[in-house]
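Entry 14. Structure prediction run on the chain below.
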Amino acid sequence: MHFCGDFRTTYEKDIEILQTPTVRLGVAACLAFLVVFPYLVKGEYLWVGLQILIAVIGAVGLNILTGYTGMISLGQGAFFGVGAYTTAYMTTKLGLSFWVGVPAAGLVTAAAGMVFGIPSLRLKGLYLAIATLASQFILEWVFLRWEPVTGGSFGIVVPRPSIGGYVFESDRSFYYLVLAITVVMVLFAVNIVRTRTGRAFMAIRDHYISAEIMGINLFRYRILSFGISSFYAGVAGALLGHSLKFVTSEQFNIELSVAYLAMIIIGGLGSILGAIYGAIFMILLPKVLTVLTTKLTMLIPGAAGLAIAMEQGVFGLIIIFFLIFEPDGLAHRWKMIKAYWKLYPFSY
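Output returned:
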């Protein structure tokens, strides 16, 4: 007997991550491309790829909080800073290794996130966003004033990691290290949203009163969501600090928080794949706009100031365009494209 379509006859098959041969082939092709990517490009392009991997970790973490649990956070940039300063302090001043500093950065940031997530018991929506915005400014003040730990306005020089005598000094070697960590973090996120915890997150997002009636402890799961999201931010911040080899408070301002919120909105709320798309889009967009404005300046030498102003304006217009015409994000659009070709030439 021959079947047409995608059939799942067991629960184990239904919850598989890679459910069809096409999906498995696509994932394998993407991983193969990421592995050979450092040998296909060099210089600035390799650096952009490295920043995309770090951004994916931060965006996935924020999407667990905002997309899956329904709580808006404007403090992601500050939590990046907590992770970066934690690993910087532990590796430079305590003499510990990168392999201790990065997990510790995630755990310390998770603890900080859960503390600032306490208002989520009473606040939601815009009010919770303002509360998390307060955490952004409080942590920025701590970064600048707690000089014995953070170095104040001077910052901290951070070394690249090493194994034995081998140092991940080049961007290519560090890229592979970040790639491995990113794959593990994304797989963990994909699995956690399929567990009881993930279902509780989504129940709270969809209707928190009904979730509480069903026995879901709102405070516990909201705090846990803040902790998981902040852990991702801490790991991403630690990797960012080691990639830049320098940590300073100016790197973790409100603009970074807004950028990560834009990533998950453009990519798609409540979608791990959407967070990945959004991270790629938001990292590449400024680079593309810079190239276009450079070309415009070459064609019109006196238009340098106008080109820079247009770059910022176009950046904002593109974000507004997505909010108006594609509110469900790039992940939803990709899903619709796949559905169209599956049903083609039929319209239903």
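The first strand starts at residue 156 and ends at 157.
Filed with the rest of this week's runs.
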